[in-house]
From TrEMBL:
Keywords, in A-Z order: Glycosidase, Hydrolase
EC code: 3.2.1.22
Protein name: Alpha-galactosidase
Biological-process GO terms, alphabetical: carbohydrate catabolic process
Limits of the Glycosyl hydrolase family 36 N-terminal domain: 33-260
Record Pfam families: Glyco_hydro_36C, Glyco_hydro_36N, Melibiase
Active site feature: 451, 521
Similarity comment: Belongs to the glycosyl hydrolase.
Length: 701
């Protein structure tokens, strides 16, 4: 069994393929962490663990290793639960009640407050094959009075005491999302969070902990994430007693949940994992988990998508879209997506959001003639929407100004000339659902790009009872999830791409409902190497859309070749948004050849294992390798930033191959053993700024 309970020792051992997690009951009745790390040989290895340890210099103030860390007593670390009862008692003293092992991989531990009628359920679900644990916490009000929940984490993770701890996390900004940072953890708290109503550009709900010696393919690495797309918080806390804990869950900023009698409130799911094989294996375990359990329709290959944004922007009409569709289909596009500007009175970003019907001026005959044309070319049709937003200059807002988040008498802050619709309100959700359902029912739309281009401001809900006002950060996100689930149940074959002004909604919460995610509005192929590398620490490349766009790029005015741009994008599900008149016939044929090549390798790049061989943060360049599950094909992408001093390229050593197998690369007329490719490597001559190469090795008999 993956989960076992030892009555005499009052402990549970949770075992995955290559790791173990130990939980026990201490002398005071607290549920505490005993161990997290590699496999132990025998059950007796747990019997000598001191679960009542006190630091010599702390005594009763010694840091607890509580599995949920309720606020109360002598606990001063970041709490996992903070509540206020109706009589203003503001602490918790939880005691163990009982447990259930629901299956080989699900454990629930029940705790109760020793005074108040609050039941707390600690949920653990093992993903043994990927050495992961899913955790969440459930609160049940068993009394007759409401309880104010002021903080709720999904997990508190504890780590072995070591001389040094290092934190790896993702940070950035719009058009520069999810860049990798690595730093020493000193005493105090490091807070990663979003207070924006969405996951945010500035931080991502993922982290990794190591002891200072972990590398890409070796060393102990602990890692975790939160599956939630609203306000989240990760607190990395090193105490003065040299212990380390990570608390992960809802952000407590401006938050209170009114828990009524007999009601239940659950934290977001938190995922944690351990590996002895470095950051690379940590990522591959997460990727495999997402492909098997999380990403919507993960078994389907992602199509080549053409998006018409860059050629026409808001100047959309039936004629120019048909012309673009003709050219996109000829080059190999499989889906044709019309971006912003097709609806209402939408001629720029000042008006029209909320009016989800085809523009009579741009499409006097409706969308169906364009859709029929796209389908006649062998492509499927897609469209852009932003359902959570509204322009003040729209029919919807003029009819229902009360439907946006607002504080009475306070002027709303417009960003991109738009306001945020209150998805906590059932009437708002029902109206938007009906609009989208009608759009999808009356048109053969196979792909929806769901955008969210701004964060929240003035987060008021004046129509609601006062006790619900600070629930909006959670209710809005669950409102979005609920609408996506309802739409997909009614229209199961519609693919949904999640976008939020680029990568501001990149997490495993939205991944359950989205076919793929948009990592950034920055399509500069050089910048994308860094963004895609950072994203790959936490998310499978199959979930990350990448476009080929014009050169020079509008972000940095950098000039790059078609080859370099396609190679950068082909590591993800491929899209392109190009102005075809800018290209010669020879260049159009070159584009067609890259798209054709991509279709030949996408089974491996989308479903295979990723090895980050050379980081783009290196002086040399970057190299990424994909290997299919059978080790019968590997695809290598190599990039060079800027050669200097006539230094030649160096050998890139591959990974994950069959050492005894023979691999052939037709492109270079090369045959080598897997062992040779991994030990000696392959030298790829790359000269000139922003040069690249793509090599495919197939295993031969």
């Amino acid at each position: 069994m993956s989960i076992r309970y030892f009555e005499k020792q009052k402990m549970w051992i949770l075992k995955t393929k290559q790791s173990e997690y130990g939980i026990g009951i201490d002398g005071k009745g607290n549920i505490v962490n005993l161990y997290w790390g590699g496999l132990q040989t025998s059950d007796i290895d747990y019997f000598d663990i001191d679960r009542d340890y006190e630091h010599p210099g702390a005594g009763a103030m010694s840091p607890y290793k509580d599995e949920i860390m309720p606020w109360g007593g002598y606990r001063f670390a970041e709490p996992g639960i903070k509540v206020t009862f109706s009589d203003q008692i503001r602490d918790l003293k939880l005691v163990y009640s009982h447990f259930e092992i629901k299956s080989d991989n699900v454990l629930i531990i029940y705790l109760k407050d020793d005074l108040k009628p609050l039941l707390v359920k600690l949920h653990y679900k093992l993903i043994p094959e990927f050495d992961l644990i899913e955790r969440h916490v459930e609160l049940v009000n068993e009394g007759s009075e409401p309880i104010s929940v002021e903080q709720l984490m999904g997990a508190i993770w504890h780590f072995p005491i070591q001389p040094d701890y290092h934190l790896t996390y993702l940070t950035g900004l719009s058009r520069g999302e999810n860049k990798i940072r690595h730093e020493l953890i000193n005493e105090g708290k490091k807070v990663l969070e979003s207070r924006q109503g969405r996951t945010s550009h500035h931080a991502n709900p993922w982290y990794a902990i190591d002891f200072g010696d972990a590398q890409e393919e070796q060393g102990d690495v602990y890692f975790g994430a939160i599956a939630f797309s609203g306000n989240w918080k990760i607190v990395v806390e090193r105490t003065n007693y040299q212990t380390l804990q990570v608390a992960a869950g809802f952000n407590d900023f401006d938050f209170t949940w009114h828990l009524k009698p007999s009601e239940t409130f659950s934290s977001p799911t938190c995922i944690g994992g351990f590996t002895k094989q470095g950051f690379g294996e940590a990522s591959r375990n997460l990727h495999s988990y997402q492909l098997k359990y999380i990403l919507r329709n993960a078994n389907e290959l992602r199509p080549v998508v053409y998006n018409s944004w860059y050629p026409t922007e808001f100047a959309i009409n039936e004629e120019n879209q048909k012309a673009l569709a003709n050219q996109a289909a000829a080059l190999g596009a499989e889906y044709f997506v019309v971006d912003d500007g097709w609806f209402g009175d939408r001629f720029d970003d000042h008006s029209g959001l909320g009016d989800w019907y085809p523009s009579e001026k741009k499409f006097p005959n409706g969308l169906n003639p364009l859709i029929d044309h796209v389908k006649s070319l062998g492509m499927k049709f897609g469209i852009w929407i932003e359902p959570e937003m509204v322009n003040p200059d729209s029919h919807l807002y003029r009819k229902h100004p009360e439907w946006v988040y607002h504080f009475p008498g306070r002027k709303g802050t417009e960003l991109r000339n738009q306001l945020v619709l209150n998805f906590c309100r059932e009437d708002v959700r029902e109206y938007i659902y009906n609009c989208l359902d009608e759009l999808l029912s009356k048109h053969d739309i196979a792909y929806v790009k769901w955008d969210m281009n701004r964060s929240f401001s003035e987060p008021g809900w004046p129509e609601a009872p006062s006790e619900h006002h600070k629930e909006i950060w959670v209710r809005h996100t669950y409102g979005v999830y609920g609408m996506l689930e309802k739409l997909q149940k009614k229209h199961p074959r519609v693919m949904i791409e999640s976008c939020s002004a680029g990568g501001a909604r990149m997490d495993m919460g939205i991944m359950k409902y989205a076919y793929q995610l948009w990592p950034s509005d920055n399509t500069d192929p050089f910048d994308r190497l860094f963004i895609q590398e950072g994203n790959s620490l936490a998310y499978t490349p199959k979930a990350m859309m990448a476009w080929v766009t014009a050169s020079p790029d509008d972000n940095n005015l950098r000039k790059t070749s078609l080859k370099y741009r396609f190679h950068s994008a082909m590591m993800c599900p491929l899209g392109f948004s190009l102005i075809f008149d800018d290209f010669s016939p020879e260049e159009l044929e070159e584009i067609k050849s890259y798209i054709s090549q991509y279709k030949e390798i996408r089974e491996t790049t989308q479903n295979g294992k990723l090895y980050r061989l050379v980081s783009p943060r290196s002086q040399y360049g970057a190299a990424f390798q994909f290997v299919n599950d059978e080790c019968s094909q590997t695809v290598l992408f190599a990039f060079r930033h800027a050669p200097q001093f006539r230094h030649p390229s160096f050998s890139i050593r591959l990974r994950g191959l069959d050492p005894q197998g023979i691999y052939a690369c037709k492109q270079f007329n090369l045959e080598r053993s897997g062992a040779s490719l991994m030990n000696r490597g392959v030298n790829i001559p790359l000269w000139g700024d922003y040069s690249s190469e793509l090599l495919v090795f197939d295993k031969i008999n």
